[in-house]
Amino acid sequence: MKWIRWPGLIAFVAVVAVGLAVWWLLVDRLIERSVEAVGSKLVGAKVELGAADVSLVPLGIELRHLEAANPDEPMRNAVAAARIAFGVDALQLLRRKVIIDEMTIDGVRFNAPRQTSGEIDRRADQKEETRKTAVSFSLPALDLPSAKDVLAKEDLESLTAIAAVRADVDAGRERWKQRVSDLPDKAKVDEYKRRLDGLKASSKGGIEGLLGGAGEAANLRKDAQQDLGRIKGAREDLARDVAALKRRTEEAAAAPQADVKRLKDKYASSSAGLANVAGALFGGEIGRWAATAARWYERAKPSLAGAGGTGKEPMEVTPLRGKGVDVRFPEHHPLPDFLIRTARVSVEIPAGTLAGQVRHITPDQDVLGSPLTFELTGDMLQGLRSVALRGEVNRVEPAKPRDVVTLSVDGYRIEHAVLSDRPEWPVVLDGAQASVDLKAVIAGDVVDGKVDSRLSNVRFSTGDQKGGGRMAGALASALADVKALNLEATIKGTTQNPDVRVTSDLDRILKDAVGKLVAEQAARFEADLKVAIAERVNGPLEDLKKQLAGFGGLNDELTSRSDALSGILSGDTLAPKGLKLPF
Amino acid sequence: MIRAIIKLLRVLNSEAAPAQISLALAFAMIVGLTPLWSLHNLAVLLLVLVFRVNLSAFLLGTVFFSGLAYLLDPLFHRLGLAVLTAPSLEGLWTGRYNSTLWRIERFNNSIVMGSLLVSLALFVPTVLALNWAIRQYRARVLARVKRLRVVQALTATKFAQMYRSYSNLGGG
């Protein structure tokens, strides 16, 4: 039997050729489907591709009309590109590495409307994020509540303090009554007097009586001195207690002033309360930009994280189920699995076209050793003198990710920007010329950003305020005079929850404009509060003082007993007539 | 299923040499147990077409072993991973990893490595065992099988006739 069948070789060639032909026929559609499927998964909304065209020599791909819907606004495209063309390194492709030396991306547009919805799976957390960006702002009111209304719903700390002192005064008085009752009283003094009289009588009984009386007199004096010492000690303790209670009573008497200040700060608008007006007007828009940027950053983060292989030691890559795992080994010339060395980009914005490039696009920066950098610039555009966006996404050390973005905008013409659509204070920036400098650094999840902007040729309009009161009128008048302003915004916190703070010299302008109005209103409110609080506090306070005065009676009692004992101890009373006692 | 049984019986009962059938099944084992789109399977296809092995047996075997592979994949994964991460073999695999041909082969995939090792290790024993089994079948069982009513009924069906005519066209 012959073991070789040469026609089999022809069959093999035919099978391979048929396989290649089928692949060639289907590859365009396969690429289209792959781009749409992977893109939709990454973006969270529909990604659609008009056409894909693969060329073999040189190996390259051209994608046309790529559109990625915005998951937050499904009727708009987050980004769209008219044409993406690139060549692929065929040899590296055989090694399962997609290496693109140069890519051209033309006609990139952001936020363009769509014909059909791009929604695929609207997630609850995204809805929540959108809600969070809405800024709540209420105009400080000049029409304050009445002092009585305020006191009806507020607890007075002064009343609490007076009640506490009063309780201590009552307890102290009871304690002292008990202590005074335990001290030598009138009966004791009378007893001393009787003993003294006895001594005097014994001194008339000759020399024996005189000698016996001397011993008894010494005992009497000793006992009286001990009792006198106890009374004096009690008087000193009483004086100390009374002094402490007096001090606390004085503090309680001062507490109503603290209540007045606290309630005034809480309810009365002050010029300091206007410090956030600029933040309220501009912070919403800046906050929305920051939140949108943060959201897209979070979405892009997994693509930037990479497989994490440094190419220096074997490592496992997390497997797909049933697909096994690919074990990586060190490479002599390490290259990422995916790399676009340079992507030349042209972006179409309403003002014109921006051009620039993105370098080192790869999820494996640690293997490449270089960060992703981008630059996009435009000059002499419509309503925009110049714009430059530059930045770096650095994952060279995956454990220390650090991204930097700078944006410089000059001569940007703003027209009809609605800053507040609240009926009580509608504010529209009718026109302005803006220059903006932004720098943001994201280290890990922590954001540290700053925006400096200068607006000139400013024109505000405030329309008809409905229910805004005198405050809205005063602010509207002040805004009408503003011709230029500086705006500073800081962005701190985390990428999941950026915190935007806006400050501006607009705050000072508005503060000056309405400051006097606010101060007058606050002074009136303070005076009313003082009267209303005094009405509620004066009674308990007077009562407290009276109770404290009750300690004076105890002191008098102790003084009386002390004097009586001192009288007994004095030589005139204790020594028999004509006899000098030996003490 | 009926078609597969008929095919199997026809192959076994044919005039093909036992070695043609056993070799075809052993090649089918490689193709079936390892992931289909692997470079080595192209080489196996070339060998199957150039060597005069039984193509019907090869196709039948490929289907059978592909089904078996689904059950054995976890085993292949563990074996492949153990081999690929063995410290003593790191130098060998690193060298292969830097070769384009080996990268196309995807040897560094745990299932490719595990299944290829198993199928290669079983290749020669499979050929020998099947050779012996086919000879034993033809010597002792074939005559009795042909007399079975169920076999006669099956071989008399339209499917069997169609298959015979189709098979005669393609050779074996």
Number of strands of chain B: 0
Morphology call of chain A: elongated
Q: Please tally the β strands of chain A and state the result.
A: 15
Segments of chain B where pLDDT lies below 50 for 5+ residues? none
Please, how many domains of chain B?
A: 1
In the predicted model, the low-confidence regions of chain A spanning at least 5 consecutive residues are 124-136, 575-583
Termini separation of chain A: 153 Å
Question: What helical percentage do the residues of chain A reach?
Answer: 40-55%
User: Mean pLDDT of chain B, rounded to whole units?
Assistant: 85
Q: Report the structural category of chain B.
A: mainly alpha
Strand content of chain B: under 5%
The rounded distance between the terminal residues' Cα atoms of chain B is: 20 Å
**How big is the Rg of chain A?**
45 Å
Annotation keywords:
heterodimer; A: about 575 residues; alpha+beta; 3 domains; 13-stranded mixed sheet; two-stranded antiparallel ribbon; 13 helices; 15 strands; about 50% helix; about 30% strand; elongated; disordered C terminus; B: about 170 residues; mainly alpha
